[in-house]
Amino acid sequence: MHKSVFLRIVEAVTANDEYFQERRDAAGRQSLSSLQKCTGTMRVLAYGTSSDVVDEYLRMSSTATRDSLMHFVDGVISCFGATYLRRPTEQDMAKLLYVADQRGFPGMIGSIDCMHWQWKNCPNAWAGQYTGRSGKPTIILEAVASYDLWIRHVFFGTPGSCNDINVLHWSPVFDDVLEGRAPYVNCVVNGHQYNRAYYLTDGIYPAWTTFVKSITSPQTQKHKLFAQHQESIRKDVERAFGVLQARFAFLRRPCLVWDKILMGKILMACIIMHNMIVEDERDTYQNYYDATEFIQDTHTRVHEENVEAFCYSTQRIGSLSSYMTNRAQLRNREAHIALREDLIEHIWIKFGTNN
Fold this sequence. Notes:
The chain is of the alpha/beta class. The chain folds into 2 domains: 3-84, no CATH class; 90-254 and 286-351, no CATH class. It contains 13 helices and 7 strands. The protein has helices at 3-16, 34-47, 55-58, 62-84, 90-102, 127-130, 164-170, 175-178, 221-247, 260-281, 292-304, 320-330, 333-351; strands at residues 108-118, 138-145, 151-159, 187-189, 192-194, 198-200, 211-212. The strands form 2 sheets. A 5-stranded mixed beta sheet has the order 3-2-1-6-7, sandwiched between helices. Helix 4 (62-84) crosses helix 10 and helix 5 crosses helix 11. The chain is elongated and about 75 Å long.
């Protein structure tokens, strides 16, 4: 990350937690500075090293490094979690929809997938529950990522013996939809009106209206073109996982932490800092879409026409019947098939060789 981003984090966690503030001990010796403690923590997260490695560089003991790590992740989550793990705002949603339309998927707001993090120090009593097909205990992260690698949804803690469908049924990713608080998204695909946003997924996910999957073994040119575009854009979430692990090698290597809750905090803090880096650097990305004028026009139109196109409803559902109705619409297989067929025609018209 750039120096300005790091110093912003150091300043925030120092003001939030007195642990990072310099003081003298009973012997009158000066404690470690906030910069030393935060630098030691960042070296552990960025290089994936053990806590005693930073002693040679920063003169910090292994205990001090571990304590700094625990206080640091708490401070990052407390200071920046509400901003960098927020739901998409009106401008965020407008930009996501604009970029999705440019890429051939009107109404798409990201890609969803899961990542396994190996838990080396998993207790033996839990090893069977957390051991999946890799043969080693893992914990699953479910995430939604957009085209600029911003991770917008995080759900962590499911045992590694589960698959993506099990994680989906436990995940709160569709709570807003089921409770009637999801943003209204109106888009036209192949001449048909749709009012629900969707994610791009791989083949394991169910046939719901909020998922668009690729086509297995496509035969026609239309299906091949659709599969090519869907699979290339769905890789956004895979790229986000790769960049996250490249920036924080601690997440790429087997975790030596004993506490599952601390593992979740470390992961959350790394994702928050990843989003901070994305916000700081995404203007330099080669495939970055500049939608500033579109967002301004949309913002003006929404307020002048009083259109609630991208606003979250603050009211909860009034009855169980409303919840069950939303659930039935969410899992409507016929609507899923119709949306995919319309997207196949839309992409063929937009990118096909007959154009």
